[in-house]
Specification:
175 residues, alpha/beta
């Protein structure tokens, strides 16, 4: 199947403010972006939850990585709306809207974990040929280092993660 080329990529760090690897990389690339730029492609490093990063806490009011559902993205902005819901709406405006042709082609969301997973790629859809091919490329490029792929697909679950705004969502976890 012919697909249009990937033109817009976002790299997210700080979805959880206490997961610092992505925060450090995003800040580095915001200051020194030459190493991630490619001809014909926009690559945007983005700090997703700056208030939580500043406090070095997972979140302020609720988990940002769980509020990208249609109910929260469509909520009316009022004074007492949780910070992360407001932030999800902002992120959806910048990188989406979710499910639209205008959404970014790829969001690569960087996380940390205390699990002994090493560097692990997260796949949400086993029918996403583009992402599967990209994971194959990444795994080959990292060889002989291990880089497992964790499939978290569920037939009745609609993902509400930060990366779900993109046409091709990718999660990366690092111990």
């Amino acid at each position: 199947v012919d697909k249009p080329p990937v033109r817009r990529v976002a790299i997210f760090g700080g979805t959880h403010g206490n997961e610092l690897s992505g925060v450090f990389l995003v800040k580095h690339w915001q200051e020194n972006g030459a190493e991630i730029q490619r001809a014909g492609m926009e690559v945007k490093p983005f700090l997703t939850n700056p208030r939580a990063v500043k406090k070095c806490t997972r979140y302020i009011d609720c988990d940002l990585n769980r509020v990208f559902d249609s109910d929260n993205l469509g909520r009316t902005v009022v004074e007492d709306i949780p910070y992360e819901v407001r932030r999800a709406q902002e992120i959806n405006q910048i990188f989406g809207p979710k499910g639209s042709d205008d959404a970014y082609d790829l969001i690569f969301d960087l996380h940390n974990t205390t699990s002994n997973m090493g560097g692990t790629l997260i796949l949400e859809n086993s029918r996403d040929d583009f992402t599967i091919q990209m994971f194959h490329y990444i795994k080959n490029a990292l060889a002989p280092e291990r880089c497992p792929v964790l499939l978290i697909e569920h037939p009745s679950l609609k993902y509400a993660t930060t990366r779900s705004v993109a046409k091709n969502p990718v999660g990366k976890y690092e111990k």
